[in-house]
Amino acid sequence: MKARIHITLKNGVLDPQGKAIQQALTGLAFDGVEEVRQGKYIEIELAASDTEAARAQVADMCEKLLANTVIENYDIEIVA
Amino acid sequence: MKARIHITLKNGVLDPQGKAIQQALTGLAFDGVEEVRQGKYIEIELAASDTEAARAQVADMCEKLLANTVIENYDIEIVA
User: Fold this and answer.
1) Residues B48, B78: contact at Cβ < 8 Å?
2) Whose CB among A17, A24, B9, B36 lies 3.0–4.6 Å from B22's, allowing a Cys bridge?
3) Are strands A2-9 and B2-9 parallel, antiparallel or unpaired?
């Protein structure tokens, strides 16, 4: 069972990495780039066979290690 | 119009960052973590109004700046 996790900065939190990408894109003459936000994407292969148990385990992982919940949101998707 | 981009390491490319996460999770007593791969997730807000044009522009951004296509794959999703 595989978990796909997106970790993104909360709204209102400054994203200097995204800003740097935006400026680089503008420098490469890409027009119309209004905002760039960068986050993390993590794929975890789990031995668990129950979807709800897997989701609860991954949420616990996010809270304890993967995300800084003061400034980041996480989103979990479980795929078979 | 918003583009969501996932940049992931190609199969077979070593992922030391993912391996470090896996070891940290095991150290925190999470069982059954078989593999962890870390990638990047980028959201770009575009002025373009045509989906196909936006997709082509973002693919060009990935080739030129966002992804290292020697070792990374990218996946583009355009949402209204």
Assistant:
1) no
2) B36
3) unpaired
Q: Which CATH superfamily is domain B2-79 in?
A: Phosphoribosylformylglycinamidine synthase subunit PurS (3.30.1280.10)
- Rounded to two decimals, what is the model's pTM? 0.92
Please list the helix, strand and coil fractions of chain A in percent, rounded to the nearest 5, in that order.
35, 40, 30
17-36 of A, contacting B, C-beta below 8 A: 18, 21, 24-25, 28, 30-36
Determine the residue among B5, B7, B19, B41 to mutate to test chain A binding: the one whose Cβ has the most chain A Cβ atoms within 10 Å. B41
Residue type, A4: R
**What is the predicted ipTM?**
0.91
Q: For residue A3, what are the CA distances in angstroms to A29, A60, B6, B31, B46?
A: 37, 13, 15, 14, 29
pLDDT in tens, B36-75: 999 999 999 999 889 999 999 999 999 999 999 999 999 9
